[in-house]
Amino acid sequence: MTSNYSLFYTFDGDVPARFREARVFGANLWTAGGAAMTWGEEARSGYASEALARAAYVAHCQAALDEGYTLARAMLIDPAVFDFALLQSLVTDATRLAVDAVRRAHTGQHIDAFALVSDDSAMTIGPMANSREALAASEYGEEMLWNPAEWAFDDGGAYFDSAYRLLLQAHRHLPFDVDFTAFRAGVFEACIAALARLDAEGVFGAGAQRDDFVLLFEVSDSEAVGGAMARLNPPEVMARFVRWMAGAA
Fold first, then answer.
1. How large is the angle between the packed helices 84-105 and 180-200, nearest 10 degrees?
2. How many CB atoms lie within 10 A of CB 23?
3. pTM of the full predicted structure?
4. Sheet holding 214-220: strands in order across?
5. What are phi and psi of 72, to 5 degrees?
6. Contact yes or no for 19/12 (Cβ under 8 A)
7. pLDDT tens for each residue of 135-177
8. Do residues 190 and 153 lie in contact, with contact meaning Cβ atoms separated by under 8 Å?
Protein backbone atom coordinates (compact mmCIF):
# COMPACT_ATOMS: atom_id res chain seq x y z
CA MET A 1 0.00 0.00 0.00
CA THR A 2 1.51 3.32 -1.06
CA SER A 3 1.56 6.31 1.24
CA ASN A 4 1.85 10.06 0.73
CA TYR A 5 4.95 11.80 2.05
CA SER A 6 6.01 15.46 2.19
CA LEU A 7 9.26 17.10 3.31
CA PHE A 8 9.64 20.79 4.16
CA TYR A 9 12.60 23.00 5.10
CA THR A 10 13.58 26.38 6.40
CA PHE A 11 16.94 27.56 5.11
CA ASP A 12 19.94 29.57 6.26
CA GLY A 13 20.95 30.97 2.89
CA ASP A 14 20.88 27.86 0.71
CA VAL A 15 21.64 25.50 3.60
CA PRO A 16 18.79 23.44 5.15
CA ALA A 17 18.32 24.58 8.73
CA ARG A 18 15.16 22.87 10.02
CA PHE A 19 12.92 20.18 8.57
CA ARG A 20 9.32 19.05 8.85
CA GLU A 21 8.04 15.71 7.54
CA ALA A 22 4.61 14.13 7.22
CA ARG A 23 3.55 10.70 6.00
CA VAL A 24 0.09 9.18 5.93
CA PHE A 25 -0.44 5.43 5.60
CA GLY A 26 -3.82 3.87 6.06
CA ALA A 27 -5.52 5.58 8.98
CA ASN A 28 -2.20 6.70 10.48
CA LEU A 29 -0.37 10.03 10.34
CA TRP A 30 3.34 10.19 11.11
CA THR A 31 5.17 13.50 11.52
CA ALA A 32 8.70 14.58 12.47
CA GLY A 33 10.61 17.82 12.77
CA GLY A 34 13.80 19.36 14.08
CA ALA A 35 17.22 20.63 13.08
CA ALA A 36 18.73 19.43 9.82
CA MET A 37 20.90 16.30 10.03
CA THR A 38 19.25 15.20 13.27
CA TRP A 39 16.72 12.46 13.93
CA GLY A 40 14.31 15.11 15.15
CA GLU A 41 11.18 14.57 17.24
CA GLU A 42 8.51 12.32 15.79
CA ALA A 43 4.87 11.61 16.54
CA ARG A 44 2.16 9.40 15.13
CA SER A 45 -1.58 9.45 15.43
CA GLY A 46 -4.26 6.95 14.53
CA TYR A 47 -7.60 8.08 13.12
CA ALA A 48 -11.02 6.49 12.81
CA SER A 49 -10.73 6.43 9.01
CA GLU A 50 -8.27 6.89 6.18
CA ALA A 51 -10.16 10.01 5.13
CA LEU A 52 -9.61 11.61 8.53
CA ALA A 53 -5.93 10.69 8.49
CA ARG A 54 -5.52 12.21 5.03
CA ALA A 55 -7.28 15.39 6.14
CA ALA A 56 -4.87 15.63 9.10
CA TYR A 57 -1.96 15.12 6.70
CA VAL A 58 -3.13 17.92 4.44
CA ALA A 59 -3.60 20.19 7.46
CA HIS A 60 -0.11 19.41 8.75
CA CYS A 61 1.43 20.20 5.36
CA GLN A 62 -0.46 23.48 5.13
CA ALA A 63 0.64 24.41 8.65
CA ALA A 64 4.28 23.89 7.65
CA LEU A 65 3.83 26.25 4.71
CA ASP A 66 2.04 28.78 6.91
CA GLU A 67 4.99 28.70 9.33
CA GLY A 68 7.44 29.61 6.59
CA TYR A 69 8.69 26.20 5.54
CA THR A 70 9.30 25.43 1.87
CA LEU A 71 8.11 22.20 0.28
CA ALA A 72 11.21 20.25 -0.83
CA ARG A 73 9.70 16.91 -1.80
CA ALA A 74 6.24 15.37 -2.15
CA MET A 75 6.02 11.75 -3.24
CA LEU A 76 4.24 8.46 -3.06
CA ILE A 77 6.14 5.80 -1.11
CA ASP A 78 5.78 2.12 -1.87
CA PRO A 79 7.15 0.23 1.17
CA ALA A 80 8.39 -2.56 -1.09
CA VAL A 81 10.41 -0.26 -3.38
CA PHE A 82 13.27 2.11 -2.53
CA ASP A 83 13.97 4.93 -4.98
CA PHE A 84 17.72 4.54 -5.52
CA ALA A 85 17.61 6.84 -8.55
CA LEU A 86 16.23 9.64 -6.39
CA LEU A 87 18.88 8.95 -3.76
CA GLN A 88 21.66 9.17 -6.34
CA SER A 89 20.26 12.45 -7.63
CA LEU A 90 20.04 13.91 -4.11
CA VAL A 91 23.58 12.79 -3.27
CA THR A 92 24.93 14.18 -6.53
CA ASP A 93 23.39 17.59 -5.90
CA ALA A 94 24.48 17.64 -2.25
CA THR A 95 28.03 16.62 -3.11
CA ARG A 96 28.36 19.34 -5.73
CA LEU A 97 27.26 21.92 -3.15
CA ALA A 98 29.52 20.47 -0.44
CA VAL A 99 32.59 20.62 -2.70
CA ASP A 100 31.83 24.26 -3.45
CA ALA A 101 31.31 24.93 0.27
CA VAL A 102 34.65 23.49 1.36
CA ARG A 103 36.49 25.38 -1.36
CA ARG A 104 34.81 28.66 -0.35
CA ALA A 105 35.47 28.09 3.34
CA HIS A 106 39.17 27.27 2.92
CA THR A 107 40.41 29.47 0.10
CA GLY A 108 43.99 29.35 1.40
CA GLN A 109 44.08 25.54 1.18
CA HIS A 110 44.71 23.32 -1.80
CA ILE A 111 41.80 20.88 -1.51
CA ASP A 112 43.05 17.63 -3.00
CA ALA A 113 40.92 14.92 -1.39
CA PHE A 114 37.18 14.39 -1.03
CA ALA A 115 35.11 11.52 0.32
CA LEU A 116 31.57 10.50 1.01
CA VAL A 117 31.29 8.49 4.21
CA SER A 118 28.41 6.23 5.22
CA ASP A 119 28.01 3.68 8.00
CA ASP A 120 27.48 -0.06 8.10
CA SER A 121 23.71 0.31 8.47
CA ALA A 122 23.50 2.73 5.53
CA MET A 123 21.73 5.33 7.66
CA THR A 124 23.99 8.34 7.09
CA ILE A 125 25.91 10.02 4.29
CA GLY A 126 28.34 12.85 4.88
CA PRO A 127 31.24 14.67 3.19
CA MET A 128 34.87 14.88 4.26
CA ALA A 129 37.68 16.78 2.55
CA ASN A 130 41.37 17.33 3.02
CA SER A 131 44.08 19.60 1.69
CA ARG A 132 47.73 19.42 0.77
CA GLU A 133 48.49 21.66 3.73
CA ALA A 134 46.51 19.57 6.23
CA LEU A 135 48.25 16.42 5.04
CA ALA A 136 51.69 18.02 5.40
CA ALA A 137 50.85 19.12 8.95
CA SER A 138 49.47 15.75 10.06
CA GLU A 139 51.45 13.61 12.47
CA TYR A 140 50.07 10.52 10.69
CA GLY A 141 51.82 11.27 7.40
CA GLU A 142 50.58 9.55 4.27
CA GLU A 143 48.31 7.30 6.34
CA MET A 144 46.00 10.27 6.85
CA LEU A 145 45.34 10.48 3.12
CA TRP A 146 43.60 7.10 3.01
CA ASN A 147 41.53 7.59 6.16
CA PRO A 148 38.78 10.20 5.63
CA ALA A 149 37.83 10.08 9.31
CA GLU A 150 41.13 11.87 9.98
CA TRP A 151 40.60 14.57 7.35
CA ALA A 152 40.40 18.22 8.29
CA PHE A 153 37.14 19.48 6.77
CA ASP A 154 33.47 18.47 6.84
CA ASP A 155 31.85 21.58 5.38
CA GLY A 156 28.52 21.16 3.60
CA GLY A 157 27.12 18.27 5.62
CA ALA A 158 23.66 19.83 5.94
CA TYR A 159 23.20 19.66 2.16
CA PHE A 160 22.79 15.90 2.60
CA ASP A 161 19.74 16.21 4.84
CA SER A 162 17.27 15.40 2.08
CA ALA A 163 19.16 12.19 1.27
CA TYR A 164 19.32 11.41 4.99
CA ARG A 165 15.53 11.74 5.27
CA LEU A 166 15.15 9.27 2.42
CA LEU A 167 17.41 6.75 4.15
CA LEU A 168 15.67 7.10 7.50
CA GLN A 169 12.49 5.48 6.22
CA ALA A 170 14.44 2.20 6.51
CA HIS A 171 15.38 2.88 10.14
CA ARG A 172 12.28 4.37 11.72
CA HIS A 173 9.28 2.25 12.71
CA LEU A 174 7.53 2.92 9.42
CA PRO A 175 6.28 0.59 6.68
CA PHE A 176 9.43 -0.63 4.89
CA ASP A 177 9.66 -3.99 3.15
CA VAL A 178 12.88 -3.72 1.13
CA ASP A 179 15.48 -6.42 1.79
CA PHE A 180 18.17 -4.81 3.95
CA THR A 181 21.12 -6.36 2.12
CA ALA A 182 19.81 -5.02 -1.18
CA PHE A 183 19.06 -1.66 0.43
CA ARG A 184 22.57 -1.33 1.87
CA ALA A 185 24.24 -2.29 -1.41
CA GLY A 186 22.00 0.09 -3.35
CA VAL A 187 22.75 3.01 -1.04
CA PHE A 188 26.50 2.50 -1.36
CA GLU A 189 26.24 2.16 -5.14
CA ALA A 190 24.22 5.40 -5.34
CA CYS A 191 27.00 7.24 -3.49
CA ILE A 192 29.75 5.81 -5.67
CA ALA A 193 27.79 6.54 -8.85
CA ALA A 194 27.18 10.13 -7.69
CA LEU A 195 30.91 10.67 -7.16
CA ALA A 196 31.71 9.08 -10.52
CA ARG A 197 29.23 11.33 -12.29
CA LEU A 198 30.67 14.48 -10.73
CA ASP A 199 34.18 13.30 -11.53
CA ALA A 200 33.18 12.88 -15.17
CA GLU A 201 31.88 16.47 -15.08
CA GLY A 202 35.30 17.70 -13.93
CA VAL A 203 34.20 18.75 -10.44
CA PHE A 204 37.39 17.30 -8.95
CA GLY A 205 39.70 18.70 -11.60
CA ALA A 206 41.19 17.47 -14.85
CA GLY A 207 44.58 16.45 -16.17
CA ALA A 208 47.49 16.78 -13.74
CA GLN A 209 45.21 18.34 -11.11
CA ARG A 210 42.93 15.29 -11.16
CA ASP A 211 45.89 12.92 -11.02
CA ASP A 212 46.76 14.45 -7.62
CA PHE A 213 43.18 14.37 -6.29
CA VAL A 214 42.03 11.47 -4.08
CA LEU A 215 38.34 10.58 -4.33
CA LEU A 216 36.91 7.99 -1.93
CA PHE A 217 33.75 6.36 -0.71
CA GLU A 218 34.13 4.91 2.78
CA VAL A 219 31.95 2.93 5.18
CA SER A 220 32.89 3.69 8.77
CA ASP A 221 33.74 0.70 10.97
CA SER A 222 33.39 -1.66 8.04
CA GLU A 223 35.36 -3.08 5.14
CA ALA A 224 35.86 -1.02 2.00
CA VAL A 225 33.40 -1.50 -0.84
CA GLY A 226 35.22 -3.68 -3.34
CA GLY A 227 36.43 -1.85 -6.42
CA ALA A 228 35.23 1.59 -5.32
CA MET A 229 38.66 3.19 -5.07
CA ALA A 230 39.77 1.99 -8.51
CA ARG A 231 36.45 3.04 -10.00
CA LEU A 232 36.77 6.58 -8.64
CA ASN A 233 40.46 7.32 -9.19
CA PRO A 234 42.97 7.56 -12.04
CA PRO A 235 45.96 5.18 -12.23
CA GLU A 236 48.24 7.77 -10.61
CA VAL A 237 46.18 7.80 -7.41
CA MET A 238 45.94 4.02 -7.36
CA ALA A 239 49.71 3.74 -7.76
CA ARG A 240 50.17 6.12 -4.84
CA PHE A 241 47.87 3.94 -2.73
CA VAL A 242 49.75 0.79 -3.69
CA ARG A 243 53.08 2.39 -2.73
CA TRP A 244 51.66 3.43 0.63
CA MET A 245 50.26 -0.03 1.28
CA ALA A 246 53.62 -1.59 0.44
CA GLY A 247 55.40 0.73 2.84
CA ALA A 248 52.82 0.19 5.59
CA ALA A 249 52.98 -3.62 5.33
1. 50
2. 23
3. 0.96
4. 125-131, 111-119, 214-220
5. -100, -30
6. no
7. 999 998 899 999 999 999 999 999 999 999 999 999 999 999 9
8. no
